[in-house]
Amino acid sequence: MSAAIVTTLLEKTANFSIEETLAFLANEYKDKVVFSTSFGQEDQVITALIAKNDLPITIFTLDTGRLFQETYDVFHKTLKKYKIDIKTYFPEASAVEELLNKKGPNSFYESVENRKECCFIRKVAPLTKALKGNEIWITGLRAEQSENRNDLAAFEYDAHFNIIKFNPLLKWTLADVQKYIDDNNVPQNTLHKKGFVSIGCAPCTRAIAEGEDIRAGRWSWESSHKECGLHQK
Predict the structure, then answer these.
(1) pTM of the entire structure?
(2) Can you tell me the distance from the alpha carbon of 124 to that of 120, in angstroms, rounded to the nearest whole number?
């Protein structure tokens, strides 16, 4: 059934612009469309499109408790500029307390398993709560962000969260994203001008050097696929 829905959405929106597709989804799935933002450049573009067109799409974010101050700054600027609501989800306090009491504050540096445990508590569990009961999840994924994302489609079924994902910027390049931000005066994280391309939790993110892979700045001590569990690809 989910595969048929994905096929239908791909066919119906094939000739739509991103804004037309967002409006179509908001109308077709009333009060069941959500957009997750981490205030990165891609997410800021989508937020601007939703706000500019006054679309009834719920915007939410995950506050892991370990974000950069610069992320909170762009969060605040976004609220002020667009006069919108952004719902915030936190990890369960008891789960964070148990993790720190058992393994300390920096266990994620010790193994991939520990890092994924921290990501699960701080990101995946809150995301599960945020997506519950909804039918369309809008993301800022782009194909060029990592090899794992090259085979994504504009619409796809996420079996892990049992939801249809819409990836409106899938074929955009980073240059496309930056041009939209510049042309439309969209607030962006000041860390992007300091070599930070993909920005997550402060302890797990660094700037990248010229020529490095976009995801090199995430969990730089690892040689894994550099995913946290929010997106399976």
Answers:
(1) 0.91
(2) 5
